[in-house]
Write a structure and sequence with these properties.
five-stranded mixed β-barrel, OB fold (Dihydrolipoamide Acetyltransferase, E2P), Rossmann fold, Ribonucleotide Reductase Protein R1, domain 1, hydrolase, alpha/beta, nucleotide-binding, GTP binding, 365 residues, globular, 3 domains
Length: 365
């Protein structure tokens, strides 16, 4: 296999020719070749080059130049590499500009972007039709998708375990207007053709969802081979364990590339307001009719959103979740602003000689 089976297209080929010439002039004629980062194992990554798979790592110069960890090479990236010989690891010298980037707020108290994948065209939002079905969580995944610049597709898996499929579909369509909703059962081989319609040659399709939703099973089902390990979920609460422990790309013969990701128990949003506006388009459109432009939809006079709830045109639980998302993102924005002020003060103090130790934090890989 080579990069042609991993999404290399006429678009990337034409872009590479222009980018390569400019890069090599800046990099003192370092002769680089294209590769795609297909799996991340921590200190090392797996690359697909023109000549096949090869282990690799970022060069020291690249690590030193990148301050934001989210700019380090990630799964899905197209990168420029050199290969010293037939047995040595490849060296990553640069990351090509990304078409899309799927991110979330990293766990912990620090406001920081955690990059999940890059250069994804379509994102399958996998939600199992069992005890784990949750439209409020689905709204969070939709926000992430819209904010990432990818096309979302809601995939309702394990339909063989559900007795009210039509009701669940209606709930999903209610929070994802205009987004395709596909019902599947890998066990009964149902819904495969609808999924394959999105697996066009040269496209990259990622799967995201909670643990136990069936992402790895879908990858195996569409691949026609056991390329991913799977585990059963607990019957009493439909909760699963993390089967997938790292992000990895899998090519589908003569079709797209699939990207499986570890399950997420909790999705903390990393958003620039685009995702919320698209996910809750019905609410934001209704809000245009509020009496006050800065209406918070919490008891203000002339609030069109609350009036719509009273008339039954909007779901109260959906509006409550919209408010929750707004509060969460406002809090995140305040934390990010405080962090930047702190970093600015620290940088100013160092410039005045406040820190002469020469210490520099290593870039997170």
């Amino acid at each position: 296999m080579s990069i042609h089976e991993y999404g290399w297209s006429d678009y990337w080929n034409g872009f590479w020719d222009q980018w390569k010439q400019s890069f090599e002039e800046r990099a003192e004629n370092t002769q680089v070749r294209p590769a795609r980062l297909i799996a991340d194992y921590g200190q090392k990554v797996k690359l697909m080059t023109m000549d096949g798979e090869r282990w690799g790592a970022a060069s020291g110069k690249l690590r030193h130049a990148i301050v934001d960890p989210a700019e380090m090479p990630a799964v899905g990236d197209w990168v420029a590499v050199t290969v010293p010989d037939g047995t040595s690891d490849a060296v990553i010298h640069a990351v090509l500009p990304r078409k899309s980037r799927i991110s979330r707020q990293a766990a912990g108290f620090e406001t920081k972007e955690q990059l999940i994948a890059t250069n994804v065209d379509t994102l399958f939002l996998v939600n199992a039709l069992n005890h784990d079905f949750n439209v409020r969580r689905l709204e969070r995944y939709l926000i992430m998708a819209w904010n990432s610049g990818v096309d979302p597709v809601v995939v309702l898996s394990k339909s063989d375990l559900c007795f009210d499929v039509e009701e669940r579909v209606a709930e999903a369509e209610g929070v994802a207007p205009g987004v395709p909703v596909i019902v599947i059962s890998a066990l009964q081989n149902e819904g495969r053709e609808q999924l394959e319609a999105f697996l066009q040659p040269g496209r990259t399709v990622a799967l995201t969802g909670s643990s136990g939703s069936g992402k790895s099973t879908i990858v195996n089902w569409l691949s026609g081979a056991e390329v991913q390990l799977t585990q059963d979920v607990r019957e009493e609460d439909s909760r699963g364990r993390h089967t997938t422990t790292h992000r990895q790309l899998f090519p589908i013969l003569k079709q797209a590339v699939l990207l499986d990701t570890p399950g997420m128990r909790e999705l903390n949003l990393w958003d620039d307001s685009t995702g919320v506006a698209n996910t809750f388009a019905d609410i934001t459109e209704m809000a245009q009719n509020c009496r006050f432009a800065d209406c918070k939809h919490q008891g203000e006079a002339g609030c069109a959103v609350e009036e719509a709830v009273q008339r039954g045109e909007l779901s109260e639980s959906r509006v409550n979740n919209y408010r929750k998302m707004q509060r969460e993102l406002e809090y995140q924005a305040r934390k990010e602003a405080d962090r930047r002020k702190k970093d600015q003060r620290s940088s100013t103090n160092q410039g005045r000689g406040g820190n002469r130790s020469g210490w520099r934090r290593d870039v997170e890989w």
